[in-house]
Amino acid sequence: MSFIPFLVLILLITCCVAVFGNATLDGASQVSLLVASAVSVLVGHFAKRLEWENLEREFSEKIASCTPAIIILLLIGAIGGTWMVSGIVPTMIYYGMQIIRPEVFLVSSSVLCALVSLMIGSSWTTVATIGVALMGIGKAHGFDDGWIAGSIITGAYFGDKLSPLSDTTVLASSVSGTPLFTHIHYMFYTTVPTFCISTVIFLIAGFTMDVSGQGNVTEFMEGLQQTFVISPWLMLVPVLTGVMIARRLPSMVVLFMAILLAVIVGVVLQPELVAGITGNAGFVGLYEGMMRVCYGSNDIETGNSMLNELVHTSGMNGMMPTIWLIICAQTFGGAITATGQLQDLMRHVLRFAHGTVSLVASTVGTACFCNIATADQYLSIMLSSSMFKETYRKRGYESRLLSRSCEDGATVTSVLVPWNTCGLTQSTVLGVATLTYLPYCFFNYLSPLMSIFVASVGWKIYKIRN
């Protein structure tokens, strides 16, 4: 009986992906979660005669626990817009483009996507913009579609996983109760070695493959230069942001200061661009323009369609579907927790988790299974974290081990599932079938294995101090 709500959720989301495709997260997944929550409540009521007040209390507590994550997501939306319009991200892309040569194309595209994704915190945006451009360049050089897409996705998901601006990173740290930058720092022990292995493979492949052709990125670079003021001085903002992160300031403070710095830079270096967003001149135009960049959707004309997609920003409004999803997912989590259904299923899974390795392997495996079953990385993170959170605490492990295991199993493997929203989106955007690029996404399928390996050698496995 405890599996019934999960079965309903799996069936509903499968239908949503089949019907809505890439637009599943626009509302269909959220409705599916609420329906599954209702089923969970009905099953729990008839099986255990639960009081409605207890259910409401559980809903409130679950949603309240994600309040910091919701605020951070709103700040992330603002920073994505301000860093783009101020010219910080375009400057990184402009200089990154200049290192691309045929022999190092695969490793360069992976590193470039990693940098862009790290700065903007979105693998989807990275793949849909710079990734599309790199697909064209790679084809011009004569590389196989699977290799090109694999290098792009590897970099995009590496940056997404470690970026403090990433919604999945914020979500994994929040639902497990781990401070954001503690979570990011702890992921270095599994993520960086895996990415290094992947880049070495791409580097060797680039020098051993017989490719021909000449990529041309001049038009792309000229579009950036004509639209934005490109200057190395703009790199001071990410450098200062990195300093604040290194000093372990609270994530909300770091994000707010990064937004403020970007606003100042945008007003000083990109005044015409900012004012052009609203069409008003003077102080009013600058004020209204930066406000819209922070909260709204903005299109900037560069003369290049792919570049237009790259510099498009959504602001805080772009985060609303994710926030809506979090609230609905926490409602589902509250329902299956209050009714005891989650605990019933956990008892069966935890029978196989006796030590550190088996516990981490069970967490990673559950996250991967949720990607296949629910077709969504957000649900996979939240469900796997909810299932194992209490077990990690009782066995004395710090919460960062849970948050890292969830990300190693959920975030990066979502793009490898053809019917998952990530796999469906990336295959559609890049024009490469999921099973075609899957063998070359080394980072994505090595990450779960690296997580288990690190646990097996006992490296940096921390226990709660009494």
Q: Kindly state the mean pLDDT as a whole number?
A: 84
Distance between the termini: 39 Å
* Overall outline: globular
> Per DSSP, what share of the residues sits in E-state strands of 2 or more residues?
under 5%
- Count, helices: 24
Unreliable spans: none
Q: Structural class of the secondary elements? A: mainly alpha
Radius of gyration: 22 Å
Q: Helix proportion of residues, in percent?
A: over 70%
Instruction: Describe the sheet with the most strands.
Output: none
Task: Name the quaternary structure.
Answer: single chain
Compressed to H and E, one letter per element, the order equals: HHHHHHHHHHHHHHHHHHHHHHHH
Count of strand segments: 0
Word description of this protein:
This protein has 466 residues and is mainly α. It is 74% helix and 0% strand. It is built from 24 helices and no strands. The protein has helices at residues 4-20, 28-48, 52-65, 67-85, 88-97, 105-120, 123-141, 145-162, 167-176, 180-208, 218-227, 236-246, 251-269, 271-276, 282-295, 305-311, 320-338, 341-349, 356-374, 377-394, 399-409, 421-430, 434-437, 442-457. Helix 5 (88-97) packs antiparallel against helix 11 (218-227), helix 6 packs antiparallel against helix 7 and helix 19 (356-374) packs antiparallel against helix 24. The two termini are 39 Å apart. The mean pLDDT is 84.
